[in-house]
Amino acid sequence: MPSNASQTGALSLPLPAGAPNAALRDPLLDGLLDYFAFWLAADLNAKLASMAGQPHAVLPAAPAGQFPFNPERTFVRTSIPALYMWRDEGQDGERYEQHTILRLRRISLVHALYIFSEQTIPAGGVVQSGLRNAVDASLRAATEYGYRTDYGHNAPLGTPIKTSLKFDGWVYLGCEGGIMWKLPGEAVVSPTAATGGDGAVQRGFPAVRAHWEIHEQPALRAADAPLGDRHVTVDGEGVELLHRIVHP
Predict the structure, then answer these.
(1) Omega before 81 within 30 of 0, i.e. cis
(2) Where are the beta strands (DSSP E) in the chain?
């Protein structure tokens, strides 16, 4: 019997009821959070563990410190360090384009915000000066390689993340770094500073904001899948002028 069930990337509709009051999660964001957190920990933890005065690893053990929403208006420091990911909420954050003659593809702009443990400035500026470079390189490698031999998301080790999350392409767009300050601000005068407040020590959270373009292709309905490829031929006066195979 024909079915009206549908699937876009890792999201299947209709949504199953699940357990009572269970959260409505975005499987793409959950999977990417887990994947990038694993890469960051593998690439940065050994260095951070060797640095005196660093109270945290790059991220706590999963799934702690992973949040699938935009914290930039609601940052409450519930967990530090932390990795946030979310789909762009603006008008240009999502669009559909014709992928084949018969199929559409959804292109989503996805952002991440990595927040490191609190540092004192200016002294902590030296500690975190290389953070953006290291995080950017790790995220770029994770995107370019697309898998790890020692990682699998709900799949055997070495399974590409695109396979696990059912998306068909992505582009890493880069990142920017900075410091998230407490509001209201907090500062103390350095014991060695001259009177008058020069040399005040401030506390903030080094952060890196990164961006991707994710391509998700809606799957064929079960009723449509048997249609398969279609062969199209254009004839002119008995002569074949054009032959194409149309993929559904």
Answers:
(1) yes
(2) 6-8, 11-13, 66-67, 82-87, 94-98, 104-115, 119-121, 169-181, 187-189, 200-216, 230-236, 239-246
- Beta-strand ranges (E) seen in 88-168 are 94-98, 104-115, 119-121
213 contacts: CB under 8 Å, gap ≥ 6: 107, 108, 109, 110, 170, 171, 173
Please compute, for residue 158, the number of CA atoms within 13 A of its CA located in the half-sphere on the CB side. Answer: 1
From the list 119, 151, 201, the residue with the least C-alpha distance to 36 is 151
Q: What is the pTM of this model?
A: 0.79
In tens, the pLDDT along 92-128 reads: 888 877 777 667 788 999 999 998 877 777 666 666 7
- DSSP conformational letter for 225: G
HSE toward the beta carbon, residue 235, CA cutoff 13 A: 3
State the Cα–Cα distance between residues 234 and 242, nearest whole angstrom: 5
Structure-token pair, residue 68: 């699938």
**pLDDT tens for each residue of 214-247:** 998 887 665 555 556 666 677 776 667 666 665 5
Query: How confident is the model over 198-214, as pLDDT tens digits?
Result: 556 777 888 899 999 99
Contact 8, 216 (CB under 8 A): yes
- Structure-token pair, residue 62: 């999963």
Per-domain boundaries in the chain = 21-219+226-246
Cis peptide before 218 (omega within 30 of 0): no
